[in-house]
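Study this protein:
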Amino acid sequence: MFTNMPSKVQKYDTAIQNVEQLITKCYPEKIVELNELLGMPMFKPRDLEELRQELCIPVLPPVLAENHCDGCIDDQPQSKRALTDVIVAGCPAVTCSPVPCNKTVCEMIKVVQTIVRTLIKQANFLNMWITVLTIQSGSAICASIQEDINDEFKKIELNAIDCFKMISEYFAVRDKTLALVAKYPHAEEHRKAVVEIDEKTCLSLTKVVCDVRNNYSLLIDVATKNWIKLKSSFNANTYS
């Protein structure tokens, strides 16, 4: 009955150490890191004019289309009459160079994706170790704490999914808007729409970083408030 006791105790001690390291070291360090990131020029409040980027889609001059027809009959139906000189404005723009992505937004997206993935990994790590403690100790208190942590993890997971969905939608919507710019280069509204999309995404990405920082704070708060109860209950059930 007691042959495996030392190995079990060692596993419990390892679990406790891992959880304590997350709560007391890893999470606080991430909060400091994210605070510093929000103070960097990339995420710092800025003049949104800086986000504007040349689209490399020229506005072509009006084209004079000549279509003369000798011997045209005036009494022909309108649909069959030959067209006279017509000014065609806003021909589709033809460009040999690719239309670039917004460099600033793309750099922010790379940073945010890494931050969100790290949050999911570390939150899942905490949830896993508390689940291990709950199963091994069989304590009702541990189970209650594990449910609280699991609820927070589900919220974090849903927020992460929304973040990646927002990023994919940004590229899809921007692509469609750029197609309209290329098709109707004379329409200023489409060009302004591209700028608005970039500005909105920039603000949304900054908000994501703030939310991730707040999620770390919530995990620390939930874990710290319940850690003494969890640890005492775990020790009571393990060594009794």
Notes: Residues 188-239 form the longest helix (52 residues). Confidence is low (pLDDT under 50) at residues 64-74, 80-90. Residues 31 and 217 are 7 Å apart (CA to CA).
